[in-house]
Amino acid sequence: MKRLLDVSVATVLLILAAPVLAIAVLLVRLRLGSPVFFVQERTGRWERPFRIIKLRTMTDERDVNGELLPDGVRCRGVGRLLRKLSIDELPQLVNVLRGELSLVGPRPLLPRYDPWYTERERVRFQVRPGITGLAQVGGRNGVPWDERLEYDVEYVTSWSFRLDLAILARTVGKVLRASGVATDPAAEMLDLDKERQLSWVRS
User: Fold this and answer.
1) 13-23 core/surface letters (b: 16 or more CB in 10 A; e: else)
2) In Gene Ontology terms, what is one molecular function of this protein (predicted)?
3) What is the pLDDT of residues 87-118, one digit of tens each?
4) CA 126 from chain center: how many Å?
5) DSSP secondary structure string, 70-99?
6) Which SS3 state, helix, strand or coil, does residue 41 take?
7) Nearest to residue 104, comparing CAs of 71, 144, 151, 72?
8) DSSP 107
């Protein structure tokens, strides 16, 4: 039933959003250049890697040492607008159709985080990762790592079709209000691996 919901909703959304996505692609190409899509490896179900697809929202601007500037500097104009409206997330519907993502589930994270989960937190890999989830409707990027990963555990251990529908409904509300979107998440909190490395050193 969950997979049927994923495929059905993703197909309908892609059809309805096609004009918006086409305009967004054109704007990204004109304002940010190529490539139009941002493709990055993430860890999926059973800890298998896959490549997530998003619209590009940042420039490749670098400092005098050749290092990329902070996300908050590189994400502006069209990119900032696409993030605020969550339009940059639309290409992930293709990942849903491929079976790599679900509409609802633990958010897929970077492979370099894999060694830093507790055994309890690893239950997140028993289900397909999602475009949205409990952590996202609970505060999106503002939720601390321990709390965010606990949301993931709660989702997996108490999953129901009704829960998915509730999360989807709350996600629509957050998207319409454009709430909880961070242009530069790294400025608000450390990456998981860095945070846990520091906490383990202190303990």
Assistant:
1) ebeeeeeebee
2) phosphotransferase activity, for other substituted phosphate groups
3) 999 999 999 999 999 999 999 999 999 999 99
4) 18
5) PHHHHS-THHHHHHHTTGGGTTHHHHHHHT
6) strand
7) 151
8) P
Structural domain count of the chain: 1
Q: Write phi, then psi, for 132 (nearest 5 degrees).
A: -135, 170
Domain enclosing residue 157, as ranges: 2-202
Q: Is 130 helix (H, G, I), strand (E, B) or coil?
A: strand
Report whether pLDDT(183) > 80.
no
- Peptide bond just before 35 cis, omega within 30 deg: yes
